[in-house]
Amino acid sequence: FLLKLYLGEKGIRNLLGAVLCAWYMGGGNYVTAVGTLLIVLTILFFIFIIRTIKLQKEILISLAVFIISFMINVLAPGNVSRMGRQEGYPLIQAFFMAFYTSLEYMLGKWLHWTILVFILFMLPFLWKIAKKVEFRFSCPLLVIGYSWCYMASLFFAPLYTIRTVEVGRFQNIMFLQWMILLVFDITYFFGWLQRRYQLQQKELFGGYEKKYLLILIISSIIMLGLGSKAEPEKYTSVAALTSYMQEDYQQYKQEYEKMLSELNSSKKSVTITDFTHVPSFLEPTESEEWSSGLRLFYNKENVTITKP
Q1: pTM: predicted TM-score of the whole model, two decimal places
Q2: By C-alpha distance, which of 236, 261, 239 is closest to 249?
Q3: pLDDT tens digits for 127-136?
Q4: Does residue 25 contact residue 32 with C-beta atoms inside 8 Å?
């Protein structure tokens, strides 16, 4: 919506869309909100300091709405109370740790061979995209550096609030954002390379794109087979198939169906027996936490879990 407004499409629909999205993002999860705040501050920097973005009241209105909603989010009594119970890192320490931790994840924990293969698959397509875009693609190092700053801002929020980034929903947001930025940065670098050295399509792949992709596909299949053998738990589909083929799975299935039948009954207080065996790709849950969740979900007065 901001891009549409900037390009001159100043209809009420785009303005309303930008304002609603700004309000929604500002009041969202801190991981998302802090990352968006960096983008908002960057836009304001280009408007008022460098003045390369033309001052437009529609854009300023949506940015102001975001800042207001973010401040309400931070200062809301419930969030203030929640923050008081958490033990995050001090502000300055969290700031520097965010850069280090984001780099540790991007170049270490997340950089699996499947990601490298994905990048190699994307190269021919990203090269063509960069060729078609009418843009100068200047200062690629600054753009890549800014991407790192943005990723660090996502890591900063959980480090400052709860002292850890090992939370599933945080990891999902940060990993997917990294993938998007990875594609964007490669495309940007290709655009700079083409403008800087006047490179053509054939100068990168020499007209052998089909052979390149075919070799990549065959290599991926071989690597997946070897990887599945060496790390079966790494791939959910492989782990699920392995568990399905084991004898323990049938017992798990019978216990699950019996448990489900009891929970779906009209009785307000039920007693269920915990699983004898849990498939390897599923994590066992603590009985107390599990019991509370089942009670709420199935609208029971009491759910008792006994050991098998």
Answers
A1: 0.79
A2: 239
A3: 989 988 888 8
A4: yes
